[in-house]
């Protein structure tokens, strides 16, 4: 099959290209940039700005399947500080990619959404009830990034209902693992914590955003890729969660990174930094019923290769 992965220069897209190549597909990668940490395995790689419709047409031309992972995104610090341009950029990418996929008569289209679509009023406590797919509306998602994701989900659904596009809509919950951004502002909490732990001397102190009692679930990249492929093959066209349902505090995330490093560190909590919602977890009932499978890798297992990779990167990057 001819498959295009947009966002193939990014974290999840790069891993997905590897998987699709291993399955024997002809893979086209498209992104503003090539992957930073390892060469892409894609058969062809288009450097393109998908905010432009012509780039989306070139990306989808001759393709059977589309995996739409291109997005202007980053950790909570980045998405909280860039509402206007991030929302505009992602609206353009998603609107143009859907129309290009329709015109190119692709067979299937997978859109990568986010747990940021869920309403903040369901996430005010650390002991949060896992979020079910049907709870995204009535809406009060994350400002900017989350509103755009919810809009793009709806738009993807309209292309399914009115144009017959065979779609998948996958809501990721905090994906982490090797080959993801670990500094520069676009990194997510697991990578940022691993970087801070790696840079601190044993017995030292690291800064943690918030009081550390905010909760999340974290899904390892290998489970994410397995889930993407299974969902694509499932035929399920409605939004579906893809995450772990192991709820941990940010303090427990720090504990896991310290254990991976073999270090004992103290924490300085910075309450002035953005923290996102108080608590968030994935309800995996639909996923488990549909696939007979759900993400399996515990945080303590997945954080070790993530930490090892970031620590090695920091060593090789140091003068
Ligand atoms: N990583 C997570 O925890 C997570 C959680 C929820 C949703 N998602 C979604 O999953 C998808 C992939 O995320 P990721 O973690 O790999 O992010 P990433 O930032 O590593 O990858 C996104 C890629 O999109 C590319 N891109 C941005 N603007 C573009 C443009 N105008 N034209 C072409 N390419 C462009 C970037 O260069 C980047 O390589 C995104 O849709 C993201 O919103 C990720």
Q: What labels would you give this structure?
A:
single chain, alpha/beta, Rossmann fold, UDP-galactose 4-epimerase, domain 1, 2 domains, seven-stranded parallel β-sheet, two-stranded parallel ribbon, 10 helices, 40% helix, binds nicotinamide-adenine-dinucleotide
Characterization of the model:
With 319 residues, the protein is an alpha/beta fold. The protein folds into two domains: 2-175 and 220-242, 3-Layer(aba) Sandwich (Rossmann fold); 177-217 and 246-282 and 297-317, UDP-galactose 4-epimerase, domain 1, CATH 3.90.25. It is 40% helix and 17% strand. It contains ten helices and 13 strands. The protein has helices spanning 11-22, 53-60, 76-81, 83-103, 145-163, 189-199, 221-234, 250-261, 285-291, 299-317, and strands spanning 2-6, 26-31, 44-47, 65-68, 108-114, 167-172, 175-176, 205-209, 215-216, 219-220, 239-242, 248-249, 266-270. Strands 3-2-1-4-5-6-11 form a seven-stranded parallel sheet, with helices on both faces. It has a two-stranded parallel ribbon with strand order 7-10. β5 (108-114), α5 (145-163) and β6 (167-172) form a beta-alpha-beta unit. α1 packs across α7 (221-234) and α6 (189-199) packs across α10. The longest helix is centred in the N-terminal third of the chain and has 21 residues, at 83-103. The N and C termini lie far apart (44 Å). The model has no long low-confidence stretch (mean pLDDT 97). Bound molecules: nicotinamide-adenine-dinucleotide. Nicotinamide-adenine-dinucleotide (NAD) is lined by residues 7, 9-13, 31-33, 49-51, 69-73, 89, 93, 112, 114, 172, 174-175, 188. Nicotinamide-adenine-dinucleotide (NAD) binds next to α1, α4 and β5.
């Amino acid at each position: 099959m001819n498959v295009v992965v947009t966002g193939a220069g990014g974290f999840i897209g790069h891993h997905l290209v590897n998987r699709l190549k291993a399955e024997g597909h002809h893979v086209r990668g498209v992104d503003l940039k090539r992957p930073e940490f390892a060469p892409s395995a894609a058969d062809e790689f288009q450097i393109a700005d998908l905010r432009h419709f012509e780039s989306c047409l070139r990306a989808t031309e001759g393709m059977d399947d589309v995996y739409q992972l291109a997005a202007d995104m980053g950790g909570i610090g980045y998405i909280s500080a860039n509402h206007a341009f991030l929302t505009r950029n992602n609206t353009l990418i998603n609107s143009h990619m859907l129309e290009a996929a329709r015109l190119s008569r692709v067979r299937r289209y997978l859109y990568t959404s986010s747990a940021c679509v869920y309403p903040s009023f369901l996430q005010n406590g650390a002991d949060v009830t896992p979020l079910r797919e049907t709870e995204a509306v009535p809406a009060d998602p994350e400002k900017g990034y989350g509103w755009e994701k919810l809009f793009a989900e709806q738009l993807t659904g309209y292309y399914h209902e009115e144009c017959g596009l065979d779609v998948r809509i996958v809501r990721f919950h905090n994906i982490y693992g090797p080959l993801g951004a670990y500094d520069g502002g676009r990194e997510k909490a697991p990578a940022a914590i691993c970087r801070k732990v790696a840079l601190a001397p044993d017995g030292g102190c690291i800064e943690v955003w918030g009081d550390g009692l905010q909760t999340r679930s974290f899904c390892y990249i290998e489970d994410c890729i397995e889930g993407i492929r299974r969902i694509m093959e499932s035929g399920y066209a409605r939004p579906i969660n893809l995450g772990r349902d192991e709820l941990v505090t940010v303090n427990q995330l720090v504990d896991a990174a310290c254990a991976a490093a073999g270090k004992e560190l103290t924490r300085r909590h910075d309450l002035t930094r953005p923290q996102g919602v108080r608590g968030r977890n994935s309800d995996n009932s639909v996923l488990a019923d549909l696939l007979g499978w759900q993400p399996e890798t515990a945080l303590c297992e997945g954080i070790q290769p993530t930490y090892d990779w970031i620590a090695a990167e920091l060593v090789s990057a140091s003068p």
